[in-house]
């Protein structure tokens, strides 16, 4: 359902939309406020640490780490992590499948919402801007593609309700994100400004430094069939970031660098989030609440968030999406022949 609410909330961990139930409350669901942790006894805090550790181990096992292939498909990699966690098999869904279904290298958050819904996921999209934001026309990250994307993106927003996607115009508070991520009932995909994340590996493994902000070219049909040998052009909005090891070797970005990550859990004891980053070689990344807040509220993100209910997918829809991708691939192959 397409709704507009106030462009801020009161910090409560409310559900994503009218008539839907958000994360519950209580220790058994891992939703404990930062303030309540400070008021705990040593014994209570110790029990909470063990509880969080057990939950994180379960989530870490359930949500795979998928590395992006190109410097624009971090969002697709995040969608793949989520649908795999919800039961889609590697046989029926991989990055090539998602490229066939999305059919653009200029990927916006609304594109990801449609992909998730295609596989039957229950998804809510919150953002402070309904449609393409004209304020980004002068931002270097968006400049090349914004005008040509506007019509397509605005049409996707308008058609969201008919396609079973709930879009709410609101700014979700950090406390709400903690509740969603910590409760275990949702997986969260965030659009962030990558340089502001300040991530660290869960097991203190050193990450490679530097970011790739290249705009290398490749044939659009070639990458759809898997024939492209190097990264394709960056998407205009909402997250196209690459690992430092991608091939075109451009200099690090000094401005906004849109990137998608999956938030799997929250640890109220240390104030840290467990995340999956498709641009990283490390599976489990820890991001402090402070850094996550800076990165997700940065100019360029529109505070885009996808809340995906952690429920098993209907395998009939997974199979239908897979077949649709195969049909699209056959059509592209025919064009290239």
From TrEMBL:
This is Guanylyl cyclase. Residues 14-26 have a biased composition (Gly residues). PANTHER family: GUANYLYL CYCLASE DOMAIN CONTAINING PROTEIN 1 GUCD1, PROTEIN GUCD1. Residues 1-26 are annotated as: Disordered. InterPro entries: GUCD1. Pfam families: Guanylate_cyc_2 (PF09778).
């Amino acid at each position: 359902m397409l709704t507009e609410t106030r462009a801020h909330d009161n910090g409560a961990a409310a559900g994503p939309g009218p008539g839907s139930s958000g994360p519950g409350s209580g220790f058994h669901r891992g939703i404990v406020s930062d303030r309540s942790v400070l008021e705990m006894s040593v014994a209570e805090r110790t029990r909470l640490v063990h509880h969080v550790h057990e939950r994180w181990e379960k989530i870490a096992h359930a949500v795979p780490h998928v590395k992006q292939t190109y410097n624009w498909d971090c969002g697709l990699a995040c969608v793949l992590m989520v649908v795999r966690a919800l039961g889609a098999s590697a046989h029926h869904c991989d990055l090539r499948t998602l490229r066939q279904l999305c059919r653009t290298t200029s990927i916006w958050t609304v594109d990801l919402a449609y992909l998730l819904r295609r596989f039957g996921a229950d998804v809510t999209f919150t953002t402070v801007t309904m449609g393409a934001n004209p304020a980004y026309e002068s931002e270097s990250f968006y400049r090349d593609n914004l005008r040509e994307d506007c019509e397509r993106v605005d049409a996707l927003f308008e058609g969201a309700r008919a396609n079973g996607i709930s879009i709410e115009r609101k700014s979700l508070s950090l406390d709400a994100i903690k509740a969603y991520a910590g409760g275990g009932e949702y997986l969260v995909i965030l659009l962030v400004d990558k340089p502001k994340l300040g991530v660290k590996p869960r097991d203190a493994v050193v990450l490679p430094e530097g970011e790739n902000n290249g705009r290398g070219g490749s044939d659009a049909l070639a990458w759809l069939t898997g024939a492209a040998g190097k990264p394709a052009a960056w998407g205009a909005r909402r997250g196209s970031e690459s690992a430092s090891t991608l091939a075109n070797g451009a200099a690090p970005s000094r401005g906004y660098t849109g990137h998608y990550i999956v938030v799997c859990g929250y640890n109220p004891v240390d104030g840290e989030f467990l995340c999956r980053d498709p641009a990283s070689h490390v599976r489990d990344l820890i991001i402090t609440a402070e850094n996550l807040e800076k990165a997700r509220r940065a100019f360029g993100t529109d505070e885009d968030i996808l809340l995906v209910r952690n429920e098993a997918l209907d395998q009939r829809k997974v199979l239908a999406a897979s077949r649709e991708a195969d049909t699209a691939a056959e059509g592209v192959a025919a064009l290239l022949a």
